[in-house]
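Technical appendix A lists one of the benchmark inputs used to test multi-chain prediction within the project. The record comprises two sequence entries:
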Amino acid sequence: MSSSFPPKAQTASGPSARPRRWLAAVHFAWIATLLGFYLAKVVFHAGLLHSALRALGIR
Amino acid sequence: MTAALIGAWAAALAAVLVLALAAHTVGGWMMRAAPPELAPEVRELCGMGALGVGLFLIGMLFWSRGMLLVLLLPLAAIGVFQVRTAGRWPRWQQGRNWILLTLPLLFYLGLDALVPPMGNIGEDGVAYHLVGPLQWLRLHHIVALHDNFPTTYPALVETLFGAVTGLANVRGAELVALLFALLLLRQVWGLVRNWGGDAWTAGLAVALLAAMPGVMEFATRPFVDVAYAAFALASARVAWAASRRPHWILAGALAGFCVGIKYTGLILVAGTVMALWLVRDRLPGGRPGWRRLGLFAATALLVGGAWYLRNAIVFLAPVYPLPLVAGNHWPGRYFPPAAVHAFEQYMVRRGAGMGRGPLALLLLPFHLTYAANLFHGAGGIGLVPLAFLPAAIARLRRQAQTRFWFTWAGILGLLWFLSDQEFRYLMPVAAVWIVAAAIGGGELLRRGPLALRTVAWLTVIASLAYGTGVVAWDGGVRARRVASLRSPAAAQRLWDRKVPYARALAFLNAEPDPGSVLLLDPSVLTYYLHRPYQVIRGPYGEQPLGPLTIAQALDRLPEQGITEVVDVRSEFSGFRLTPRPGWRLEFSTADARIYRVR
């Protein structure tokens, strides 16, 4: 993990590295989950999933 | 391209330039009341708002192209010299890549704005926003139309639409809408900078808002919501920074422009006062007493009050029609209680969103992100606001300004949630949300660990790509409009396709007879008709001629000066008329008939 995240002036718990890693992991999990769901929804709504499955002969 | 078409584009662009320069001049006169650091950012907005109010007050007495030229051209001429000497523009360098990324979309929207507004009764722009401005030119003063009650709404922005329409043509209205979108982006840039973000982050916020379909869908349509959001944001920014009495007056005036745009401006004033009161100990300009907050609210009501006073005098209700229980006991002028009730039921149904319970409130950010269509916010807000919200809270939580903006957005969001959950009305909150998300996300994008940086960048790219695509495509509507610019034949095909009863209306407009036309069905939009007209029932059940039946109205044709009657087949009804002796069917298609009655 980068030592510059978040910037020290903005951290609540001072220069300790552990909370920063923990915070970065939470951000990563949160964003990745939302992004995955978002992309799945876009793909589904755009009919891309349907087209891809049909192209593969699954439907 | 024909010379006439190019001339129409040039005239519309010139009219909007005149309006913008006049706003620059008038705004400059108001800047002595602005906090110095905000003056360059709110100047044009103040000018636009003041012109809207001023032209409305003058226009109630007299309205014509000549009057607009006499008033606006000298102001614009002064503005030319002031622009040349102002010389203070934002420092774009760090954020220029984001701006460059946004420019193609803005240029594309500019092309869209060159296509005249068109659509059916479901398109508010042609159903009422532009109906007034076109009629005012014919009637030579600003009036609210009895046959179309939404024209009684506060109409600051419509007055500006009317000004450019009067100076040039109706394409100018869409360019004014786009101008307001640029002014909103300017507010977003400024808010990021004031809130502690650098120019790179400000550019990111601008790019994200420019690609937010729920907002930019309206950037070139003759709607008023983008302008409302720009004024609301500017008002709150000035109120936050206010330290002297004139600052509070200017903040109130900017909120008053919102009051003069939509009835929800009244909610905005109340919400802003509440937010200021709740964070009163943290305001940088010192703790405001009730006197300062009262000055803010009183100025807002005074500045935006002209429309409410007009309605109180003409329609016996400052908010027309009176809402909720009050409406049931109100002797509606031109608007029978049953029609008022039906309209309210329609609004309640339309604004139901995802419900109003605690769980719905808790899930609101997710619903706005993933199911904005339930709030009529087609295309949504993108993923960035929700994805970077925790980062924004972590990054900003120690700043005093954060308390204010989160309180302001929270109160307005809650009031929106409890009232009418139409996404357009939430634009000011969406703008604050995107600013906070950009500031929080900016840290992740540039300084996070590699994995976090990667997923954060993917989020931004997904939001920008999807949002840009949706704004540009807009269900095919915007793409077809822009494609229609390639030739007059393509433009005519689009017109015939989008305008209900286009051929019948073209026939009526080509008639040399100056007599009135009687319209029996509200789906024939008066926006397209360039002749005097009368209607029996308005689109919402208005009764401009009183409670007449069609038969009674037909008995009175000669005394009303009516020469033609238009009968159509629509979503509301089939053909309604049986020709009477002496009538002549002079136009007939599968869905429209026109009878000459004398």
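Chain B has a mean pLDDT of 91. The two ends of chain B are 40 Å apart (CA to CA). Comparable benchmark entries are summarised in Table A2.
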